[in-house]
Amino acid sequence: NAGVMQNPRHLVRRRGQEARLRCSPMKGHSHVYWYRQLPEEGLKFMVYLQKENIIDESGMPKERFSAEFPKEGPSILRIQQVVRGDSAAYFCASSPPGPGEQYFGPGTRLTVT
Amino acid sequence: AQSVTQLGSHVSVSEGALVLLRCNYSSSVPPYLFWYVQYPNQGLQLLLKYTSAATLVKGINGFEAEFKKSETSFHLTKPSAHMSDAAEYFCAVSDLSGNTPLVFGKGTRLSVIA
Prior knowledge:
The complex is a heterodimer. Chain A is mainly β. Helices cover about 0% and strands about 50% of the residues of chain A. Chain A contains no helices and eleven strands. In chain A, the strands form two sheets. In chain A, strands 2, 4, 5, 6, 9, 10 and 11 form a seven-stranded mixed beta sheet that branches. Chain A is globular, with a radius of gyration of 13 Å. The N and C termini of chain A lie far apart (about 35 Å). The mean pLDDT of chain A is about 95. Chain B is mainly β. Chain B has no helices and twelve strands. Chain B has strands at about 5, 10-15, 20, 25, 30-40, 45-50, 55-60, 65-70, 75-80, 85-95, 105, 110-114. In chain B, strands 2, 5, 6, 10, 11 and 12 form a six-stranded mixed beta sheet that branches. Chain B has a four-stranded antiparallel beta sheet with strand order 3-9-8-7, with no helix packed on it. The interface of A and B includes residues 56, 91 and 104 of A.
């Protein structure tokens, strides 16, 4: 059973470009979470999705950021018009239905130049 | 609202010495508590979790943690540090309803000196 997969692992974007981060959850997992890790900081929750539904987006900036988890395919975190402050590691985690731990992917490290 | 405080952003121990990483939590509801480890440029790996069963929880790689409700603490320990334990450690909390976002502490970087 493959773990949570994220791609790309590293992404470089110039200010004003768009960044698309992908996350494929573990097999059988229908819950996906996105977290952001800034340098010297812990992980901060951004958004929680189930298939075709956003359950909680309280941690996601209102502007420029969006997320989806379609019926088919990976979850996508999209950042439009990136700025230098968006440079961070973005982690995706998945979990099965019901109480349980979250399994993390290796992360996508976004650098905005 | 839930929160986690990890005392000490950096802890340094000698190889073979006791490892103690501190975590205090705040939660208005009974919590689930977790310790994760992160090696450089990697994702987070679950070390152990507390889910309201036994208060002393054993995890992987010889780590364990004790849930103390009276102290709102969930400190991580290992009797004898190994060089391979050098990493960043994160304590996290969620509520017992399950499938809720984790709230993380800022992390503690563990260095192991030969």
